[in-house]
Structure formats: structure tokens, C-alpha cells
Amino acid sequence: MSVKRQSSPSVDDIRTAIKAGPGPKTVFLSGKASARKIAEAMTALANAHGGFIIMGVTNARKIVGVPDPDIAREMMASAALITTPPLILPLPELVEVDGKPLCVSQVPAGLPHVYSLRGQYLVRSGRDTRPLMPHELRILLLNRSEASFESQTPRGATLDDLDEQKILAYRETLGAPAADDINDLLLSRGCIAETDKGLRPTIAGLLLFGKNPQRWLRSAEITGVRYAGATMSDDFIREDIRGVLADQIRRAEAFVTANMRRGMRIKGLEREEIPEYPISVVREAIVNAVAHRDYSIRGDNIRVLMFSDRMEVYSPGRLPGHVTLDNLVEERYSRNEAVVQVLSEMGFIERLGYGIDRMIAVCEQEGLPRPDFSETSAGFKVTIYSHAPSLVGAGPPANLYAHLQLNPRQEKALSFLQSHRRITNRDYQTLCPEASSETLRRDLADLVDKGLIIKIGQKRATYYILK
Fold it and tell me: Is the entire prediction scored with pTM above 0.85?
């Protein structure tokens, strides 16, 4: 892992940091701070995403300066050497702001170790420095060690837990000779490993070729949900997607495609049919979530949530290595190298990058806002915005129903759904009082069969929404 060299902070950089206040990447310290206090800040930033330590500024953003710049600089330099392992940092710099001398130290992102101070592992969280929780320390140790989580061999797993047909299909995709030993191929891809009990499948191997991957990693699945409106509600359809990673990707994309609205957009003097989301962007977001999620996190899974105005793809695990929200487009780091390589060879992902730049480019070409990329406390989320506001009709326009040979009652139901988002049997009876309840039931069942509406609930709680 290489650490990207950072340029020296300018006065403007320091002013901007002071104006923003203390945060995940900025620590303010007194001009008389001890070497231990400085080392605590350095350790916390090094175990997170790096940042600035500025001596001579209060947490209230008041610039007071350091009383002796030379002593402050020496204190900062010595503080970096009392961590375990010692931090190799750029030399602290003296910067004058508003006539006051400040001492600034930069902790780069992407450092290769996990750092401690007298046995305590610290991390920067928001504007606070706190100890790492045991599970956080375990994940950080895995992320920054040569032995990643995907290379572990679960206790009890054997080669019989791998699906030979899937492996053979993969070998055929590679164009490898049939005479080649399958085990040699899997060893070279990190899907099996040599242990004191012989060859055993790794986490990566089970995720990619396992007969039942969820036996070993229950949370290695995708939950797809389509909500009727712009917020979570009781109006939704859901699918829990399991199996090997390649099947999860295909089924998640199929879920989005099946539940995506389509409408008409005016282009010049013509109307063109257009889907709610560019499918290539959807595919890229799903593939990235599967390839780069942190599979060591238990009790959380990938979520694909569809709303009336956007889609959110959430993946457990914050950005890996030296990748941050600021350098997401330019920087590259694979948390799961074996998974990425095999998915790449299967045609799902380009190993050179995340495809973030392609997602942005396609959205701009389609006239959509750029996707929003954000980190939560334990994960990463991509928000893709919908074409819906610019489409003619929230669902299929009425003139698209002509070829489906709908009766007038069904056209009334679809018009009602476009305005009200849902319809019940009672609503339909009010719209068409002259028809019997059995006739209306058959009408709605026909609309479900034609793929125009979705039935939600059972018996008296039944209602329908547009598909």
C-alpha cells in the first residue's frame, strides 16, 4: 500500500480548517499541549482518514498562537515517535495566521498500520477522539493487514461446500484448458488456501462459488425494497436476494428493472420512452456494493431502496484504505482483492477502478444530478436520482394502455392510481358502482397479470400500487 504524498498546507488551507472547526480530520490543540496529548491526536487521525493537527487554536476557533514556535515544533516531532509503531510524518510546519504563530502537523491518509499509544487504540470520530471498540479494532486490523477477511478459512468448511459446476463455468469463461487442475486455479485466485488440515475454501471462495454461502455468512445478501413514495412507508414490495455474488448481482439488477417506472420525455418535437434510472448506473452501484463491502461486518447487509424520486444503495463498511469522499473518483483500493479479480474475470467489474467516474458521466449525459456518495457511521451509501420529475406522468401515460385492450373501468383505476398512488377494492367500487365486486376483482387481477400494478397485502388489508 502506498501513501499519497500531500502538499504543505497553505495559510488559506489553515484558515479554512479553522473556520470549519474541529472535526473528523481536524484537531485543535493548545499552544502548550503535551507530547502525549499531541500523540493522542496523531494516533486517532492515523487510525482514521488522516488530517491536520493545529496547535495554537481553541475548540471555539479562537486563534491564540503558540508561545514558543520552536518548542512547539520540537514537541510535535517528538510526539510522532512515541506511538506504536512510530509515525513517520512530514516535519511540522510553522504558519502565521492573523499575526499569531501556529504549529501544524499533517497526518496523511492511507497509513499502512494500526497505531496505539501506550496500549490504547484511538480513533477520530466526529470532533472527538475516542478509543476503538473491539469490533472496530478487529476490522481495522484486517483492513490494514496482509491477511484480509476474505482470505480466512471458516472452521468446518471443506471443498465439498463449493459448487463444482459453478467453478467449471468460471474456468470456461477464462478459456482455461479443461485439463488444468481446478484446485490450482482456485489457489491462484485466493478462493481456497493451504491449511494444516489440507485445502480449505476461503471466505472469498464460498462467496463466489459456495453451494450455500449464507451458511457461513448469513448477512452476505441483498435486500431490495420498492416504496410507493419518497419516504419509507407501509406501501412497499421486498425481495431478499441470496446465493453466490454473481447471482446476487443479476437478481438485484432484475429487481430494480422490474420495479422501475417508465414514462415519456419530450425531446425536441418527439416523445421518447425512458426508464426511471439509467440501468448502467444502477448496475455499477450494485456491483460496487457487492465487490467492495466489508464482509466481516455481521448483522448488516446490502440494501437497494427505491423511492419515487431516488434510489439508495447501501453497503456495510466505510471506504477502505486511503480512499475518502474527497478522492473517491481518483483513488483506488480493493478491500476484497480476490472477489474483485474473479468478478472482473466474470465480466462484472473493471479491476482498474470503481466505475464512479462512469456513473457520474452517464448521469450528466442523461440530464440527472450527479449521484451522491456519503459515509454513515458503519457503511457507504450511493444515492441515484430519478428521471421521474421530468417524465410525462408518474407512471405510464394513459395513451400507452391502448394496445393492452383495457376496459374503461381498468383505465379509471390506472388514472386513480396515478393521482393517489394506491387503490383498494372499496376505492374501485366507488369509481365503478355499477359493476359487481367479482367483476372488479377480475379487473384488478388482470392488471396484475399484465404487469401494470402490484398487489400488496391480503384479504381486507389488500391494496394495489403502480408497478
Answer: no
